[in-house]
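pipeline stage [seq->struct] | target=Putative enoyl-CoA hydratase 1 | organism=Segatella baroniae F0067 | residues=154
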Amino acid sequence: MEKLIINSYEDFAARLGEQLGVSEWLEVSQERINQFADATLDHQWIHVDVERAKAETPYKSTIAHGYLTLSLLPYLWDQIIEVRNLKMLVNYGMDKMRFGKPVLTGSRVRLVASLDGVENLRGICKTSIKFKIEIEGDRKPALEGVATFLYYFN
């Protein structure tokens, strides 16, 4: 898969309304879920207790934390786009974010992203990226929303 190359505000502006790309699939393993639980101190049993989840949840499996799914966004985003001539990138916000479907352990997810908005704020490029994290084999996405980033170009 070839990354989209962006060098400036003008490059972003030229792609307004377009799909920017689709990432590769990434497996969400129990090991990844456990590591996230350790990092966030969120050890709720539906994420980490495999036997109890099999017996007591409608999913018959542990599921990824919603915030784990969200935290994959930068990694998956990096597969889609390469921004050059960049001094700094800042996360600005999330809007219209919805967790549509739980990610069962062992599922594979990917990112589909499009450019929803772009503004030049006195030399700072503010982008609104409409994103959807899809689950392989499911029509309903795990997560969707709009991520806003501030790109400071050299």
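stage status: PASS
auto-comment: Residues 4-153 form a domain with the Thiol Ester Dehydrase; Chain A fold (CATH 3.10.129.10). Strands lie at 4-6, 19-22, 26-27, 81-83, 86-99, 108-121, 124-135, 143-153.
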